Amino acid sequence: MKEVTWKSPSNIALVKYWGKYPVQIPANPSISFTLSAAATTTTLKYAPGTGQIEVYLEGVSTPSFLPKIKTFLERTAEQFPFASTLDLEIHTSNSFPHSSGIASSASGMSALALCLMSVKQALGLPVSDFFQEASEAARLGSGSGSRSVFGPLAAWGTHQDIQGSHDRWAVAYDDVAEVFTTFQDTILLVDKGEKVVSSTVGHGLMEGHAYAEARFAQAHTNQADILTCMRNGDIEGFGAIVESEALTLHAMMMSSRPYFILMKPNTLKVIEAIWAFRENTGNPLYFTLDAGANVHLLYPKSHKDVILQFIDSDLRTFCKDGSYLCDEVGQGPKQL
Ligand code: DP6
């Protein structure tokens, strides 16, 4: 068998994607920091065949991944028509522990999309914009995966202030003050369990949601405002939008029918401690959340020492087994 390998990072949204139309078209634009340490490495082995697929996670056969991969290959049949004429072996591993509560769908789907783009190229099929096509394919596997293809930031979804922005793929975004290209993201592992409601179900609950229209309009405004803050190096303005986006995301979950809560008591304790720390010390420490209980701490690299000290003394106690992961803004995927 021949093989290709890509390492693709996870990302953390600043303005959140929550709500979509078929197929994988976002209800509003979003923007994220591409991460550096949290990544999926995927080796795709291929040989002429009949579309047989085997998938291995950390070297162990994992047939439970097959339905998602098959859906992905069906949705990308136009981009990768050759996939059904090959036998594929997918070997995937994550830099973060599988049970840590860190979502691997963005990094996993983008790594697989990039591998298939490399196969497409190796087969001599026409490729006009490698990364744009990879982002479009990744989107069909996982919406947020479209953003993992680019660093240091990536924006997905048509927005008036981002040239070339599109609902079908993400674009790289770097028109930001330098401080934002080295921002730190320390992920507090408040809860390591499986999510009670998947993102896919959560997105679906935005259909007919009482606040949907207002929320989608707000995301457009927040996207415009956060770009201005980042361009001007306005960390305080940036932090206010990021925290509001996180709480709005969870407010949407709490006000959908059926309603649900993904935060845990310790998520709130961490948020309160961050606000008190900011008030008392003036340090620029902000939080965001994805669809789970874990808290992402966002702060400039220049404040790393004092904030890591605060995490160890005051926040670590709220983490399962005292565990947290240190990450920072990264440059995007790498072919290995
Ligand atoms: C809360 O990309 O995981 O993390 O498109 O159904 O795979 P699917 O959903 P997914 O949703 C991510 C939601 C979010 C916000 C974000 O990353 O923008």
Description:
This protein is of the alpha+beta class and 336 residues long. The protein folds into two domains: 2-176, Ribosomal Protein S5, domain 2 (2-Layer Sandwich); 183-328, Alpha-Beta Plaits (2-Layer Sandwich). It contains eight helices and 14 strands. The protein has helices at residues 66-75, 105-122, 130-141, 199-204, 212-232, 235-254, 265-281, 304-315; strands at residues 2-15, 20-21, 25-26, 30-48, 53-57, 60-61, 86-94, 153-156, 170-173, 184-188, 286-289, 295-299, 324-328, 334-335. Strands 1, 4, 5, 6, 7, 8, 9 and 14 form an eight-stranded mixed β-sheet that branches. The protein has a four-stranded antiparallel β-sheet with strand order 11-12-10-13. The longest helix has 21 residues, at 212-232. The structure holds ligand DP6.
Question: What's the arrangement of secondary structure elements?
Answer:
Layout: E1 2-15, E2 20-21, E3 25-26, E4 30-48, E5 53-57, E6 60-61, H1 66-75, E7 86-94, H2 105-122, H3 130-141, E8 153-156, E9 170-173, E10 184-188, H4 199-204, H5 212-232, H6 235-254, H7 265-281, E11 286-289, E12 295-299, H8 304-315, E13 324-328, E14 334-335
Parallel strand pairs: 5-7
Antiparallel strand pairs: 1-4, 1-14, 2-3, 4-7, 4-8, 5-6, 8-9, 10-12, 10-13, 11-12
Helix pairs in contact: 2-3, 5-6
